[in-house]
Amino acid sequence: MRIIFWIVVSVVSAFVLSCQNNNEPNYSIVPHIENRDFKFIQGSIYYNKPDTMKLKFYLRDGDFDLGLNNTNDSAPFNSMFVLNKLTGQLIPVNGIPTDH
Question: Minimal CA–CA distance to 65: which of 18, 93, 36, 30?
């Protein structure tokens, strides 16, 4: 019975150890932003299609905060308010009227 116990422990241990991914890269906590592509696509007056600018970039950050800390809560870093361009007031995200 002890032999079966040790076999089961060995198999479970081998399985648990094989599930760990030690090849995951450790990225720096300093954000890295790289411009990959920029395109201007001209619209058409005849088809009522506006001009378009497409920006493609690459982003890598080890701690996923883009270099900000929790005390950066004033503009332009605040994520809890939006700016009403007509009145110039900041509106809390939960208080946005349905008519936008």
Answer: 30
